[in-house]
Specification:
- The chain starts with 16 loop residues before the first helix and ends with a helix.
- Helix 7 links the parallel strand 4 and strand 5.
- The longest helix is centred in the first third of the chain and has 20 residues.
- By secondary structure, it is α/β, with parallel strands linked by helices.
- The strands form 2 sheets. It has a 6-stranded parallel sheet, with helices on both faces.
- The chain has 2 domains: 175 residues, 3-Layer(aba) Sandwich (Rossmann fold); 72 residues, Putative phosphatase, domain 2 (DNA polymerase, domain 1).
- The chain contains 10 helices and 8 strands.
- Helix 1 crosses helix 8 and helix 3 packs across helix 4.
């Protein structure tokens, strides 16, 4: 069944509590017909095969190295500080997720920056700190991103980011790049009060699209995210843009350096 995309102001990651609890209870779809993420009824025929939707990690679309460039512009060349900042940011995500001590991603961006500055003995004024934090919502898209996303949407595929970003951050990032209209929904793991790779985070795409997981491809930027999505049961493509070595976890179903290779793989499925 085809479905119109949400208008730019649509609420991020909508899903009813009943729908989410049924999903966690073991049913991929609470029923053949269930309330959709935008308030409409979604019908997902169980006999229809093939990939019908794609959930994206945001860094498959946006170049995260913009954070490093912002640090260099404001604090001078210091490769160690942004590396510490980003590493500690994801460590905080995983630690808080594992221990059930959730705070949203904006909070963690700030906490990890404070830690990185302290670790490297750098004093950061409030205005500079705010500009550094804003870098996460002002990243440049990868050169192929906009064109490939629009081609995928034109094929009738349903698209959504599935991101650890807080809802406001997703909205700001996509609006800044002018590609908000490509996506049917915006899925923040804030809805599940956890972070990827927790299974509750990946479950949000099933509930949002109203499709079984075998019909939702997941595009991962990190090898760990590809492993988490694969373990959850999504057909998974690792968009390995930086040529990172494979993890000793589980292999994605396929891998390639850009979204064009993802599009080719999806077309074959």
């Amino acid at each position: 069944m085809s479905m119109a995309r949400a208008p730019p102001g649509a609420q991020v990651g909508l899903m009813s509590r009943r729908q989410f609890l049924k999903l966690l209870g073991g049913s991929t779809l609470a029923a053949a017909c269930s309330p959709g993420p935008l308030g409409r009824t979604l019908v997902a025929p169980p006999t229809e095969a093939g990939i019908r939707a794609i959930a994206f990690d945001l860094f498959t679309i946006f170049d995260p190295r913009g954070v490093d460039r912002r640090v260099a512009a404001l604090l001078g060349e210091n490769a160690a500080l942004p590396a510490t900042w980003k590493t500690r940011l994801f460590e905080y995500c995983w630690i808080r997720s594992a221990s059930g001590q959730y705070v949203d991603f904006e909070h963690l961006v700030r906490d990890s920056l404070v830690y990185a500055a302290r670790a490297h003995g750098v004093a950061i004024a409030d205005a500079v700190r705010a500009s550094l934090e804003a870098a996460f919502t002002e990243l440049a898209p990868w050169p192929d991103a906009s064109t490939t996303l629009r081609e995928l949407a034109a094929r009738g595929l349903r698209l959504a980011p599935l991101a650890n970003y807080a809802p406001r951050m997703i909205e700001a990032l996509l609006d800044h790049a002018g590609i908000r209209d490509v996506f049917e929904a915006l899925i923040s793991t804030d809805q599940a009060r956890t972070y990827k790779p927790h299974p509750r985070a990946y479950a949000l795409a099933e509930a949002t699209f109203g499709l079984p997981r075998r019909q939702i491809a997941f595009a991962a930027f990190g090898g760990w995210d590809a492993a988490g999505a694969h373990w959850y049961g999504y057909p998974t493509f690792w968009v390995n843009r930086l040529g990172t070595a494979p993890e000793e976890l589980v292999a994605a179903d396929a891998t390639g350096p850009d979204l064009a290779r993802l599009a080719t793989w999806v077309a074959a499925h």
